[in-house]
Input
Amino acid sequence: MTTGSHRTDWEQIARSPEFRALMKRKRRFMIGSVVFFSLYYFALPILTGYFRFLNTPVFGSMNGAYLFALSQFFMAWVLAFLYIRHANRMDRLIEEMICKRKEKAS
Output
């Protein structure tokens, strides 16, 4: 792919320490998020199936399992917020990396 009057060397960019650090940050965030989401999501059926404390009424006919299920919506919103914040940081780092590349090229 060409950018302006010079060619972009994508392989050189992929080998650069900045890009590798960027990918490492991205991978660490994604793996952490997926592991946390999976554990939280599957905790409800496991905890309600094998333990009694979520099946006890909290107030009225509402028990702990319903509250835990509702908390999963909030957990998804918090994860979405954290992802957006992380993506914005990554975008800033990418812009800095592009600026450095352009300065080196000129």
Notes: The chain has a mean pLDDT of 89. Strands lie at 2-3, 6-7, 57-59, 62-63. The two ends are 18 Å apart (CA to CA).
